[in-house]
Specification:
Largest sheet: 6 strands, mixed
Number of helices: 0
GO molecular function, one term: signaling receptor binding
Main location: membrane
CATH architecture of the largest domain: Sandwich
Strand order of the largest sheet: 1-9-8-3-4-5
Helix content: under 10%
Radius of gyration: 23 Å
GO cellular component, one term: membrane
Shape: elongated
Protein name: Lymphocyte function-associated antigen 3
Order of helices and strands: EEEEEEEEEEEEEEEE
CATH topology of the largest domain: Immunoglobulin-like
Subcellular location: Membrane
Number of domains: 2
Length: 183
């Protein structure tokens, strides 16, 4: 019975990306293909060999089967297939659809004034979920939900807050002065 494994994954332009593979078996042979072309190959008799676009940018882990691509480029967006042969078993293949995305933009913070709250919203241009964190300096009274923060209106407007966004190995932040809420 052939098990079909297909996973959509993404990496960020310029970062290093390692496919999420963990094989807990003794491997005899590993072949990675990109859109049906072989890009990396290893067998127990020899060192790993890299082809085409991964010639100087690939690293194969022959213990786990995972492949790392260094310094992702746009044309690394492709379908990758890992074929591996465990000792004493039939070969297995895993498919990964890799999308290389531009890094997120610098976050921007906007402020709305409601009845007795300041509502700060942090936003960045990115096609996937981001992790948001905030630094409030000396402010202690706030409510945070991901990229939105509620502050009491009587807060010291000379304070600054910082929004930090993170995805993969990329982090960016922006600082915002609460005085900007009251033009």
């Amino acid at each position: 019975v052939a098990h079909i494994h297909c996973e959509e994954v993404f990496g960020i332009l310029g970062e290093n990306y390692t496919f999420p593979v963990k094989i807990n078996k003794s491997l005899v042979e590993i072949i990675w293909k990109k859109n049906k072309d072989k890009v990396a190959e290893w067998d127990e008799q020899s060192q790993a060999v890299y082809f085409t676009s991964l010639k100087n940018r690939g690293s194969l882990n022959n213990e786990t089967g995972s492949l790392t691509i260094f310094n992702l480029e746009e044309n690394d967006t492709a379908t990758y297939v890992l074929e591996y042969l465990p000792f004493d078993e039939n070969s297995v293949s895993l498919t990964f659809i890799l999308t290389v995305l531009d890094p997120p933009s610098e976050p921007t913070i906007s402020c709305n004034v409601s009845d007795d709250n300041l509502v700060l919203m942090c936003a960045a241009d990115f096609k996937r979920p981001l992790t948001y964190s905030w630094d409030f300096g000396r402010i202690t009274d706030y409510k945070q939900q991901q990229n939105v923060v509620f502050l009491k209106k009587n807060v010291d407007v000379s304070e600054k807050v910082t929004c930090l966004i993170e995805v993969s190995q990329t982090a960016k932040s922006s600082e915002f002065s609460l005085a900007e809420c009251f033009p």
